[in-house]
Amino acid sequence: MAPKSDSGKLVAENRRARFNYEIEDTIEAGIVLTGSEVKSLRTGKANIAESYASNERGELFLINAHIAEYKGAAREGHAPTRHRKLLLHRKEMARLLGAIQREGMALVPLRLYFNARGIAKLQLGLGRGKKVYDKRETQKKRDWERQKGRLMREKG
């Protein structure tokens, strides 16, 4: 099997997810889309910042992801925030659903992109929500790294 390359086109990224959640595991999932949604994604008009993955009737769905309507779609448009089914192997889905139910974790979308073959994929993160003091600690570390970089540039 060939190694996975990250040569695909990034469509949307959830940058706040790593700040709000402590991500323990990531997994790549396919996503069921209509033709106008794919065309809209190719133009880069998507937002996954407020979205999450949830269990509905034993299947995983991406909820509250906004994919803008494609202007060229005459009759067959799509609802921008409809629930979209995620495609995973049954064992992966069972493991994720078990972690969500037993351990109180959340499935957070991290990135929406097209892979090297041109297929839309969603990178999900299995994480636990951070407390306020954890977020403050993360902010302190980020500020210190930024300040340290400035000091190093000034000195040499």
UniProtKB/TrEMBL annotation:
Main location as per UniProt: cytoplasm
Region annotated Disordered, chain positions: 135-156
Subcellular localization: Cytoplasm
GO (cellular component) term, any one: cytosol
SUPFAM superfamilies recorded: Small protein B (SmpB)
Source taxon at top rank: Bacteria
Gene Ontology BP annotations: trans-translation; trans-translation-dependent protein tagging
Molecular function per GO: RNA binding
Pfam family of the protein (one): SmpB
Alphabetical UniProt keywords: Cytoplasm, RNA-binding
Family annotation (NCBIfam families): PRK05422.1, smpB
Protein task: Required for rescue of stalled ribosomes mediated by trans-translation. Binds to transfer-messenger RNA (tmRNA), required for stable association of tmRNA with ribosomes. tmRNA and SmpB together mimic tRNA shape, replacing the anticodon stem-loop with SmpB. tmRNA is encoded by the ssrA gene; the 2 termini fold to resemble tRNA(Ala) and it encodes a 'tag peptide', a short internal open reading frame. During trans-translation Ala-aminoacylated tmRNA acts like a tRNA, entering the A-site of stalled ribosomes, displacing the stalled mRNA.
Family statement drawn from the similarity comment of this UniProt entry: Belongs to the SmpB family.
Protein name according to UniProt: SsrA-binding protein
Organism in which the protein naturally occurs: Methyloceanibacter marginalis
Organism lineage string: Bacteria, Pseudomonadati, Pseudomonadota, Alphaproteobacteria, Hyphomicrobiales
Chain's gene name: smpB
